[in-house]
Structure formats: structure tokens, C-alpha cells
Amino acid sequence: MSRCTGSLxxxxxSRVARWVFGFGYVAVWGIVGWLYWGPLTDLDFFFLxxxxxxLTGHPLMVYMVRFQSVxxxxxxxLGLVPITAVxxxxxxxxxxxxxxxxxxxxxxxxxxxxxxxxxxxVAAIDRLRGASLVGLPRxxxxxxxxxxxxxxxxxxxxxxxxxxxxxxxxxxxxxxxADDRAPATGxxxxxxxxxxxxxxxxxxxxxLLLLARRRWRALGxxxxxxxxxxxxxxxxxxxxxxxDTIYSLVTHRGTLPVGGGSIWQVLVGTPYEWIPRQWxxxxxxxxxVLLSLxxxxxxxxxxxxxxxxxxxxxxxxxxxxxxxxxxWPYYFLDAYVFGAVWWLGQANPLAMVRWPWGASVPVIAIIxxxxxxxxxxxxxxxxxxxxxxLMGAVLAVLMIILAMWLRxxxxxxxxxxxxxxxxxxxxxx
Length: 429
Fold this sequence. Notes:
The protein contains 18 helices and two strands. It is mainly alpha-helical. It has one domain. The longest helix has 34 residues. The chain is globular. The relative contact order is 0.10.
């Protein structure tokens, strides 16, 4: 009886602490959003103008928005839904003309998705370790995701409030696939693609893994459900405004020049500049396919429930900052999140032999983000060629080492029994 009565206050304290942390986190985002005096972001250039179009009664015309008459929003429409809902409430309360207030409330409200992302990441860590983090380690794990400098730079500094939504959905999709719920995986991935088109990158290794394991039914469910959700989400916009929708989602990227921070800058001014300008995304996707196949072919033990699947997701996510024709600081966030789950999902992530390798992905991602952010002002006249080449070389070395590491099969014994109560068989780490 004493054991039960002792655990009840502990559970209550834990629940209260979670709520206090959650409300405090949301409040901090709101305050920081109100105090922000930095340069305008994509929230100002794309999302809020699209929201104003939607609130005037034309929600299917949001892809009309342009910056400098050329640059468009190349992400799906789902990310605009919560922004529009929050802006509508602020407008109804009479504060719609106060840009600072709107930004503050949007950042506060959508920080909930950062908490959901962190919760899903920590749940993945618990599942991979076979035991839940408790106490200070759990707090630190949440802090690694919610206080990441890449997250704050992405959302506050560049206005990409949709990125945590996409990452939450992708992490959720990986969990449902590990639980053999392929239809739910397809639906969740479809929603992720409607939020941010770069959700296609984590879909590549997971799809190839199902293909290699000949899980035809699961692969069919994932592909069909994802395609159905994406079609259902994009089709109304294609019907209402086909020109702007196709330009935004498909063709406008090819009109943009090779920008700063990219190794492709070595081709600027040469007859080969058209290659990255037109086809950089094909190089990104192609390398993701190649790296996935290299790892999957060597790892017969690799499954969606394996710890190393998050390492593979981090590896393929790094193809974007390596081969994109313009590198932005927030391009490193996906690799950071997947890499942190992969690192902390091992039994003893701080072991002296293991932690430098395990932590390499999130550490390099932070360095890459800060270096790219520092250099963002020098984008003209090839000033970022040395930085782009250096960062590209570091990423290439990291990816080679990570690919070699992931090709090595490792076996770990899970701590928890399976649903039948029996001790589980050895599984890949």
C-alpha cells in the first residue's frame, strides 16, 4: 500500500512538471516573437501574405504570393492551415493589423508542434533503449530537441514554422511503420509531404528498405496512402490556380541561381553552371537513393524498428546541405533531429568510446548551421566559395564515415519483454 501511495504523488508531480514546462515553453516563444527585431523572414514574405489571401475568401489562391516577383513558396498547403487559423483568431480579436502581435501569437501557438516533435523523438529514444529516460536525463533529452539552436534559427530567424510540423509527422510515420501499421505510415507521410516537400528525403530510405525486404503489401499501402493524401491536398489548388500552383511546387526552383554556401559555387561562371541550377534536387535525391542502397544492401538485419534506421535517415538528410545549389541554415535541422535520436537511442550514449561518433551528426549539424548563418551576409561575388567548399568537404567526410559505420551490423538485446511476456530475441541496434 505504501508503494502505491508513494507513486501517486510522484505521478502527479511529473504531470504538473510537464504542463508547467509546456506552458513555459509556449510563453517563451510568444515573448521572443514579440521582442524579435531582426530582418523579415519567410513568415513575412510568404506565409502571412498567403494567409491574408485566404482570409479574404480565396484560400485556393495562396500560391500567387511572390518575393521579388520570382521566388515562391515551394511547400505544400498544409503548413498554412494552423497559421491561418491562428491569424484568423487574432484578427477576430482585433489585432490582425499588428504584425508583431500576429507573429508573437503564431510562434507561441505553433511551438506546440516543436513540443510534439520533441515528445515523439524522446519516445523513439525510449523505445530504442528498451527503457524510459527518467529525471535529469529525460529533461536534457527534451532540451536537445526543444532548445536546439538550429530549431530557433529556423523558426525565429527564417520563419519556417512548418519545419517542426513536418519532423513530428515523419517521426510519427517511422514509429507507425515500426509497429507494422503501413496505412497509417502512408497517411502520415502524405501529410508530411503536404507540409514540406523535403519530407520526400526520409521517405526514400524507408521505401527502399521495404522494397529490399520484399514487404510488398506494406510498400503498397505506404505509397498508395501517401499519394492519395498528397493528391487530395494539392488537387483543389491545381484546379483553382494551376499556373501559380505548378510554378510554386514544380518549376520555380529551376529559375533560381546558384547561391551561397554550396559546393556548386565552383561552377558559377563556367559553361556547366546550368547543371546545379536546373538539376540540383535530382543530385540530392539521387545521392539519397545511392547511400540508402549502400547501407541496406550490407545490413540484412536492418528493419524500420532498428536504431540504425535513424542513422540512415540522418545520412540521407545530409544530402540536402551537401548538394543543394543554395544552402540555408535550417537545412541542417532534419539531420540534427534524426542524428540525435540515433545517438541517444543507444544504451549508453555517453560512453567514452561511443559518444564522439554518435554525437558527430548533431554536432556537425550545429556547426554547419552556425557557420552558414554567419556567412549569410556575404552571398555576392563568390565570397562564400571557400566556406561552401570547406563545409561540403566536412559533410562528405562525415557521410562517408557514417555510411561505413551503418554498414556494420550490430546486435543488442532489448530490455523489455514483448507483448506475450517473453524475453525478445536479439535485434539490430
